[in-house]
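From the shared-data thread, chain only:
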Amino acid sequence: MLKMAVLLSGSGRTLDNFHERIEDGRLRAKIEVVISNVPGVLGLEKAEKYGYPAFCESDDEKINEIIGRYDIDIVCLAGYLKLYMPPQNLLRRVINIHPSLIPSFCGDGFYGHHVHDNVKKRGCTVSGCTVHFANENYDEGPIILQRAVDLDYDDDADTIAAKVFAIECEAFPEAINRVADKGVDFFWNRIGTE
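Structure, as tokens:
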């Protein structure tokens, strides 16, 4: 069972998903701490309601200080809208979910509706999500899992976002379970990264 720190910036929908799946046994993990870089967000209220230690800090050094108080195996970026630099012991242990099929529509500036608007503008008939390890560059770490979803010609950005989020709810927990089963190094080694 992986012990997780969850970083978020907003409503905590992914935290809801994690909590529900931990409770019913579909996610073999334990949330040790939740940290937001934005004060007063709903995600922090939800963390407190679920009984998780909840903090607000925007500086990586202070975030890492908080994480250092807990026994953490992985850090999950759950709608965390900032590049995060973990402490040395967690460098290859940060997992992110991106709302497209990397390498399409990713990198600096591609998040949330920016992704879905561009998917629509390009006329894509497929989109999806990618769960990957994070490194010092946006959306460049090793891919753990991808899931695709078919799009209709008349889907607008909101409809695309809803379809993608529905599969994110399945993919992120499944990816965490795969990391628990295979280990972190498996994913870094399979792409030849040293």
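The chain has a mean pLDDT of 94.
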